[in-house]
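I'll show a typical protein example:
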Amino acid sequence: MVTIYVDGSWNCEIPDIAGWGFVALRGKTILKVKKGIVRGNTSLNSTYGEFTSVIKALEWALSRNITEVTIAYDFLPIEKLAIGKMKPYSEISLYYLKSINYFKQYMNIYFKKVKAHSRVEYNEWADSLAKRAISKKIVFGYRLYQC
């Protein structure tokens, strides 16, 4: 089975951009490491990055014909929305739920909660990817501040 650690990030100084990242493994073998940004016309928050990281990870898995995936996450709505224990509460959460339901047609998706910022190696890596995606190396012209 493939395990994919996912995470998202956001910075209040650049409210129209959120970052996402994922690390995919089979056992201890790294299959894919990816990061990116999502842009919006309105203010975003880390939720956009969190949900986008899962969608991008599952798109990658589907493109590789992977039929069983465990999503390792630290943002509770990732699992709660997917298994029906939470109702969509925003446009992005509704889009995420529709995306999950689409991917469920092609693969079995399992979830594993990990504690955020607790030195879980691959979760920390996914977190750093999401943060680097919104760093000045990717998003030119912005200076990042602690908010």
About this structure: The helical segments are 46-63, 77-82, 91-103, 121-133. The two ends are 39 Å apart (CA to CA). Residues 74 and 114 are 5 Å apart (CA to CA).
